[in-house]
């Protein structure tokens, strides 16, 4: 089976959440001789990060008309028509209206429909083109039951072709001996206990809330390591910090997977104060690495409550402070909870995710009952 895969999220300097999803589909399928990928992307000037053992070919091409999404809406289907594949998988939440072959889309969430700028162009793209493309496509994959509910609340007619396939986490998180070397930011902290914030500067991720939690704890030695900020964003966020915590907040540079895992392992607790997620990698990864994680049980995070999670209402600062104090007081119970959390996290497997994707592909490819 030959599958076309939109892989713009790998065609970048640093691979992030969506890119990890695509990389793992490629990595987990490396030994499957019956599956051949063709990756499509749009920036020949940047690297495209494929995992070792990648089985397939790469087609990176530019196409004029970024303002009107013409790479996606015209360039991509033209490429597929000229050199056909059995099916096309659009992995990044959008897809072309013109679909020369059976097309699958991963719709991670519905945030784009809530957050676009309301311009005529945005309304045309998000409220006309994309719903039409979703109705036309062969199948829709989403990543949580929460996202499925959001999709069907907006387009109930799509119910029969939406499948939930949760993401996985890297195998290293599930190995008891997978200790990772300390990152530079950990080394700079010395013996100081620290919290970790995940989410960068996006408003809905609520870095400001993590800072308020730190400030409310009145613990002079406690530090906060903030992850997910570009160099410019680190500077801007640092300038905006309250004076009383400015020396206690450390901004991490981009961290490799092993460095992030080590940061989790050494943390007193992880703060994940996001208002909405389609999935929520940090809520699972932190627990699998043995770190208690504090979050509010909103959207998909309701599905990620595990042995090392501590939940608090979204805007209850006192409850967040109590949750962090509870994490700090786990003491001798933390190793046992860590073992339970690692066992719990095994349900989030990239191998099982790939198997579920292949079942969807088989159901829509030409010659199947749905794809004929």
Explain the overall architecture.
It is a single chain. The protein contains 13 helices and 13 strands. By secondary structure, it is an alpha/beta fold. The protein folds into two domains: 2-168 and 350-364, Rossmann fold (3-Layer(aba) Sandwich); 171-345, Rossmann fold (3-Layer(aba) Sandwich). The strands form two sheets. The protein has a seven-stranded parallel sheet. Strands 10-9-8-11-12-13 form a six-stranded parallel sheet, sandwiched between helices. 40% of the residues are buried. The mean pLDDT is 94.
List the domain count as a whole number: 2
The CATH level-2 architecture of the largest domain is identified as: 3-Layer(aba) Sandwich
What is the number of helices?
A: 13
Structural category: alpha/beta
Q: What is the CATH top level name of the largest domain? A: Alpha Beta
Say which CATH homologous superfamily of the largest domain is assigned: Glycogen Phosphorylase B
Provide the fold topology:
Layout: E1 2-6, H1 17-28, E2 36-41, E3 56-60, H2 70-82, E4 87-90, E5 103-106, H3 111-115, H4 120-136, E6 139-142, H5 145-154, E7 162-164, H6 184-189, E8 194-198, H7 207-217, E9 223-227, H8 231-239, E10 249-251, H9 257-266, E11 269-272, H10 281-288, E12 293-295, E13 309-311, H11 317-328, H12 334-345, H13 350-364
Parallel strand pairs: 1-2, 1-4, 2-3, 4-5, 5-6, 6-7, 8-9, 8-11, 9-10, 11-12, 12-13
Labels describing this entry:
372 residues, 13 helices, 13 strands, globular
Question: In brief, what are we looking at here?
Answer:
The chain has 372 residues and is an alpha/beta fold. The protein has helices at 17-28, 70-82, 111-115, 120-136, 145-154, 184-189, 207-217, 231-239, 257-266, 281-288, 317-328, 334-345, 350-364; strands at residues 2-6, 36-41, 56-60, 87-90, 103-106, 139-142, 162-164, 194-198, 223-227, 249-251, 269-272, 293-295, 309-311.
